Amino acid sequence: MKILYVITRSDHGGAQVAVLDLIHHLPPGFHPVVAAGESGYLQDECEKAGVPFRYVPGLVQPIAPILDLRALMQLTSLIWSEKPTLVHSHTSKAGMLARLAARITGTPSVFTAHTWSFDEGVPSMRRRISVPLERLGAALGGKIITVSDANTRKALRHSITSQKNMVRVWNGVPDTPLRARPGTTTPLTMITIARMVHQKDHATLLHAVSTLEGNWRIQLVGDGPERTALEALTAELGLTQRVTFFGERQDVAHLLSQADIFILPSKWEGLPISILEAMRAGLPVIASDVGGVSEAVIGGETGFLTRPRDVDHLRAQIRHLIETPHVLARIGKAGRERYEREFRIEVTARKTVEIYEEVCRGTKEAPVYVHSEEAG
After folding, report:
1. Does residue 111 sit in the same domain as residue 197?
2. Residues 317 and 202 in one domain
3. What is the pLDDT of residues 161-171, one digit of tens each?
4. Confidence (pTM)
5. For the chain, what is the domain count?
6. Which residues of 84-117 are buried (b: 16+ CB within 10 A; e: fewer)?
7. Which residues of the chain have pLDDT under 70?
């Protein structure tokens, strides 16, 4: 079964990592092809893995009618030439155009909504446009995979589609032998892994830690358009000696294994891959209670949930963990156990393959891959 994966951007983001993890864990008999509107991290990783990558130059993130029409024509041509069994699109822009191209060519399709294009933080004008566009995309057919129950509820509230058209499949991440030993490092090390963009709200984190006492440091892993402003804010708050900007890193699992606490102060989310990676490492998590975060982080058990954009609340939760280092290992262990039960990539891949089979069975003359236990 050939699957064409379509996504807009190629940078090192959660949706791109989710696509890569999924295609690396497809059963035998599956042949992935990846298409995106830019080169970069995703293309590089596909080439390393021997996965065909197709560049679709018109597939850009903002709404741009002329480019969108060009991208639709390019995607339609790509589907005709690749002849995939199914098209699986990710993120809203790619989801709309890829589903339309799939409809034109008579190809079964699946769309994964990591977050919705009308989510919190999106400008109001764009949100008003996005809701009818998401409804149109859903009307084109195919299943919609939501990465959290919160995403499903949000779609129902906005009448994007019916419950029967959506399937919740939590994100998953591959396991690694690297484990953290929270509460044992000196100085105590906090870490966040996120693109430096408005959504991730690093500024709230920096303000929250600016008045904390004790022997601690914080590592910011990731890059993005807000990095220069965040470096300036770090200096302004007198945190230069405590905060390290790591930029993009390929050794995230290693960095997490050397930390004590993981923090993600986002303004909105779907189900963040970085939180699952932190739980995999056995780290306690402090994160904003947005989107599907509370479906992974159980407050008081595997970490703590904070109010988004609330500096004082975030500071209080961080201070609590800094002042009670003896609980770090217990909370981290609970997070690791929850990862093992719910968030392994093998579970995500198996459920996704089952959706592929269901969608293809509903399409006449579409070849169906029969999943077996031996195939994983």
Report:
1. no
2. yes
3. 999 999 999 99
4. 0.88
5. 2
6. bbbbbbbbbbbbbbbbbbbbebebbbbbbbbbbb
7. 121-122, 363-376
